[in-house]
């Protein structure tokens, strides 16, 4: 059974581009063996990640993330069973907010900065769908 999970968390320490690149490389290396696909967004110290795969694999990954000392304030935004993957092309894609028109964020939030703690899970899921549609997700891995 396939599931889709969307969560937000805050980085426990400030991350630079190199450290974020390491996280993405590790995900792209390990996810195929677990059947995990999805995309990661990191902005202003906040992670927003959508993962898809088998229920056991996704649940185990989310539990590891929840216990990972690099994350604080882990918040489950959305979890559902799915019949097919929407983000199957990415072992772990990366959302490039620089490619996103700020008006797109205004469509779902009060301002042009991303704050997943201020939005509903369904709104965040629709925002991911829009990012997919406007080619804001890169790095097929």
From TrEMBL:
<dbReference type="Pfam" id="PF04940">
    <property type="entry name" value="BLUF"/>
</dbReference>
<dbReference type="GO" id="GO:0009882">
    <property type="term" value="F:blue light photoreceptor activity"/>
</dbReference>
<dbReference type="InterPro" id="IPR036046">
    <property type="entry name" value="Acylphosphatase-like_dom_sf"/>
</dbReference>
<feature type="domain" description="BLUF">
    <location>
        <begin position="2"/>
        <end position="93"/>
    </location>
</feature>
<dbReference type="InterPro" id="IPR007024">
    <property type="entry name" value="BLUF_domain"/>
</dbReference>
<dbReference type="GO" id="GO:0071949">
    <property type="term" value="F:FAD binding"/>
</dbReference>
<protein>
    <submittedName>
        <fullName>Blue-light sensor BLUF</fullName>
    </submittedName>
</protein>
